[in-house]
Structure formats: C-alpha cells, structure tokens
Amino acid sequence: MATRDQVAENTGMYLLPRPSYETVVTDDYTYIAGPNNAWVLDIREPNVEWARAESQRRGIPLVEWWVGWSVRPSLADDLLSIGLVPDDEPVLTGMTSATAPPVAPHVEVRSLETPEEYLEAIAVDWEVWQIPDAERAKRRATEVDRFDEDHAAGTAHHWAAYDDGRPVGFGRGIDMEDGVALMGGAVLPEARGRGVYRALVRARWDHAVARGTPLLVVQAGPMSAPVLDGLGFQRHGEIRLFADRL
Known about the structure:
By secondary structure, the protein is of the alpha+beta class. The chain has helices spanning 4-9, 48-58, 75-82, 115-128, 133-153, 196-210, 224-230, and strands spanning 22-25, 30-33, 38-41, 62-67, 85-97, 108-111, 156-163, 166-175, 180-187, 216-220, 234-245.
C-alpha cells in the first residue's frame, strides 16, 4: 500500500483506470496519456525524447512533467536545459486529509448525473481557467462522450454548487484504491468567500466515506492550498511542473 506521502506526490499513478486515460510505465518514469495532454510522473531520468515521440504519435500537443520532492535535486535544471519551461501553474502542493472537512449547509451541491448537467457545470471550470472560445468548442464536442465513459466506468465523479439554480462552482473526484483524488475544482469569482469551495470539498469527502476510503488527496495551486489548510489538510511537499509543448 502506498503511503500518504507517495500518493500526494504522484497522485496520477494511483487513480483507478478511466477509459480516456492510458498509463505506460517505462524504466525512466510513468507516462499517462489523456485526451488533452500527457503527464510524466515518478521521474528517475529525463528521457524527453521518448515522451515527445509517444505524445506526437497519439496527437497530444502538451506533455507536463511533474517534479516532486523525492526526485534528485538536479532534475528540474536538467529539464530546463533540455528546453522545457515552467508550466502556467508552476508549483503545486501535495496535500492529504483523513478527517472530515467542515460542512457548508447553506450551499446547494448536487452530483452531476447527466451530460447536460455536466456541460453546464464544466463551463465554470473553463471560465475560471480562461479557456479560449475555440478550445471550449473543441472540448464541448468530446466532453459528452468522455462524461458517458467515465460515468459508466464509475471511477470519475462530478459535482456542482448552485446559486439560484445557476452553477457557480465545479468539482471532480477520481477514485483511488484507498481514497479519492480532488482532480479539478473551480469557483466563479463572484461566488468566492461564501463557502462554495468548502462545500465541494465536503461533497467529495462524503463520497470517499461512502465508498469506505476516507482519504482525500489533492495537488493544490497557490489559491486553493491556503483554503485547504483551513479545512484540515496536511502539506507533504511541493511539485514543480514543466511544460513541453509539441
């Protein structure tokens, strides 16, 4: 069984299988191919050439290298010297919690059970992350199939927070063998500071408890990490992200 420290550092390696993602374990790292990008985790050697060739074969335009706290200290410099650049979100914090976060009973949160609900709610995520309109149109054409596949597999789960019937927050949880990973979460700027993010975290905790795996894992950005501190999460270390745009 992996430790909480290991799961927090290389979360993607411990997610249960999903139809749209494929994992390849090499001698140098673990490579995970998704629909929009690829992740390189648990890095021992920076074999950029293999990851580039494999991503180009799959039509993937972006490879993200996740450099955790347990790798050799010179690895980040090696990637920079090869030509990679810090990602748009260059540093994440690996965090876990095995205690119940506080509730936000005044916030309405619902599990998303239909493609229509999902498309309406995922637009919150796209708005927060300022996804260009052309990319949104491209994703909209494929997200329904992805949602249907994930929903049928029972591994990925989605929630939305609502204000007067309108989604203002979005959260995704991916099941692991011993916990649930918080993989994606966003709150519209006008809805922040009212407990929406806390309510979405609590919904995923309740899901984790219901499946008998009371552990949440997240690799948090600089905005969400302080909030998660206040919800009882433990910090394990920092992960530096480097982008290879093909």
